[in-house]
Design brief:
With 242 residues, this protein is of the alpha/beta class. The protein has nine helices and seven strands, in the order H-H-E-H-E-H-E-E-H-E-H-H-E-H-H-E. The chain is 38% helix and 24% strand.
């Protein structure tokens, strides 16, 4: 599925700088090892590597991985491997930060939780970024259009995050922080965003997609423009040191 949306996915708006800096701090700073599970086309892996972290991007979709490698700026070191979050084959106990950003809905939380527990170094941090549409007229209207176009367009319950943390960092209580992602989309950007959504791009036929795009464009005109916005929730917890 994700192999079919890699090009559109790469066009998604970037994550906010404040979130990048927070993840850098949680890792312990430049030089620390980070595993980005379900890295997609590198929306966090690439800027974190540019900040000096030793990032390993783990992605099961080969087209996504190819797009990530193609987007990597010259001189930015980053390891990109084809693997699942549930079974990375990376060395155990060696990562200061293990990250899942907008990817929890696509993994098995039990198997991934056990794998994260194996990967984290003593004192290492598990960080999970959950995203939901912002409560703005355009984004709420867009959510309604998506749900009408595909009734399966619903987020996965946050219970998966609790299961993941419970296995990866037993007894730990995750801290919760919030960030805001915002961007203005032109016509091409709106098309790419819709095409990148798994329950739209690969799920709808061409005619249904064009109808949805037309409805989204009309919505943008009524609400003052296609103002993309997401509320990002960062949950993190550190593994105890011996």
């Amino acid at each position: 599925m994700f192999n079919r949306v890699a090009e559109a996915y790469a066009s998604r708006p970037p994550y906010p700088e404040a979130l990048l800096r927070r993840l850098l701090a949680l890792s312990g700073g430049p030089g620390q090892r980070v595993a980005d599970l379900g890295a997609g086309t590198g929306h966090l892996a690439l800027p974190l590597a540019a900040l000096g972290l030793a990032v390993t991007a783990v992605e099961p979709a080969r087209a996504m991985l190819s797009a990530l490698r193609a987007r990597r700026p010259e001189g930015v070191p980053l390891a990109a491997i084809h693997a699942r979050a549930e079974e990375t084959h990376l060395p155990g106990g060696s990562f200061a930060l293990v990250l899942l950003a907008d990817a929890l809905q696509w993994v098995d939380p039990e198997l991934t939780g056990r794998e994260v527990a194996r990967l984290l170094a003593p004192g290492g941090v598990l960080a999970v970024v959950l995203a939901r549409f912002a409560r703005t007229p355009f984004m709420e209207g867009l959510a309604a259009l998506l749900l009408r176009a595909n009734p399966r367009a619903r987020g996965r319950p946050a219970e998966a995050a609790r299961e993941l943390f419970g296995l990866a960092v037993p007894g730990g209580v995750p801290a919760v922080e919030t960030f805001r992602q915002e961007a203005r989309l032109d016509g091409a950007g709106l098309r790419a965003l819709l095409a990148s959504l798994s329950y739209v791009g690969p799920a709808l036929g061409p005619a249904a997609f064009e109808r949805l795009l037309g409805e989204a464009e009309a919505l943008a005109r009524r609400t003052g423009g296609a103002a993309f916005g997401r509320e990002l929730t960062l949950r993190w917890c550190a593994r105890p040191r011996p």
